[in-house]
């Protein structure tokens, strides 16, 4: 779970936008949420409509989105779907004053992090908010590592990729040589090249990096 200092530090390393995005049609609610969030050391930015937020956000929008279920113009659920279609994976916490079970089910099926009814207890709310932020940080780090692994993999030659695939399958150098119809010594040379290009210090590192290419 991120601390206040960790979040401040992250803002110093490429983060230029507020961490918590409050999308609510009621000015009083927006202001109250902003005061609460900022009192806990988390930067926040408010939006009155879903369109306002869509005009602002990009796939790099990160942190957490506090989203009112019943927004003007487009609903919170419609906004959630639009964000998903745009590739924006920032965790969403829906906030509503009504117990709407069908909407709750739809929100969770579409990937909502949580669904909180007003009035809520501040400590529990902030706990869930910090958990959402922690999830976002973890997910973004995973995607960063995936992108890095993909870039490294793209630098491999066709034969090096074949050797890598055999390695991940658990083939020994002898088995790999037989499978690819090349010498044991050649396999060792290719594997050394793969280790260097994939920036893996050990075989375990290489397998771990390769597996990143197989996950979402």
From TrEMBL:
GO BP, sorted A to Z: phosphorelay signal transduction system; regulation of DNA-templated transcription
Residues carrying 4-aspartylphosphate: 68
Record-annotated Response regulatory domain positions: 19-133
InterPro entries: CheY-like_superfamily (IPR011006), Sig_transdc_resp-reg_C-effctor (IPR016032), Sig_transdc_resp-reg_receiver (IPR001789), Tscrpt_reg_LuxR_C (IPR000792), WH-like_DNA-bd_sf (IPR036388)
Domain HTH luxR-type per the UniProt entry, residue ranges: 149-214
Transcription found in the keyword field: yes
Alphabetic keyword roster: DNA-binding, Phosphoprotein, Transcription, Transcription regulation
A GO molecular-function annotation: DNA binding
PANTHER family in alphabetical order: DNA-BINDING TRANSCRIPTIONAL ACTIVATOR DEVR_DOSR
Protein name: Transcriptional regulatory protein FixJ
Top-level taxonomy: Bacteria, Pseudomonadati, Pseudomonadota, Gammaproteobacteria, Methylococcales
């Amino acid at each position: 779970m991120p601390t206040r200092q960790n979040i401040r530090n992250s803002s110093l390393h490429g983060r230029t936008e507020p961490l918590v995005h409050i999308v609510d049609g009621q000015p009083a609610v927006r202001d109250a949420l902003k005061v609460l969030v900022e009192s806990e050391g988390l930067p926040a930015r408010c939006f009155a409509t879903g369109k306002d937020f869509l005009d602002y956000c990009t796939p790099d929008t990160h942190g957490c989105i506090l989203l009112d279920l019943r927004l003007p113009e487009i609903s919170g659920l419609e906004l959630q779907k639009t964000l998903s279609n745009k590739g924006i994976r920032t965790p969403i916490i829906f906030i509503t004053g009504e117990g709407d079970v069908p909407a709750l089910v739809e929100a969770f099926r579409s990937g909502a992090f949580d669904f909180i009814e007003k009035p809520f207890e501040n400590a529990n709310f902030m706990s869930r908010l910090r958990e959402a932020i922690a999830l976002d940080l973890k997910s973004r780090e995973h995607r960063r590592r995936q992108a890095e692994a993909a870039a490294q993999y793209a630098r491999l030659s066709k034969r090096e990729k074949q050797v890598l695939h055999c390695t991940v399958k658990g083939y020994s150098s002898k088995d790999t040589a037989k499978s690819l119809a090349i010498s044991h010594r050649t396999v060792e040379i290719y594997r050394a090249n793969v280790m260097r290009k994939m920036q893996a210090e050990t075989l375990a590192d290489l397998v771990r990096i390769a597996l990143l290419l197989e996950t979402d």
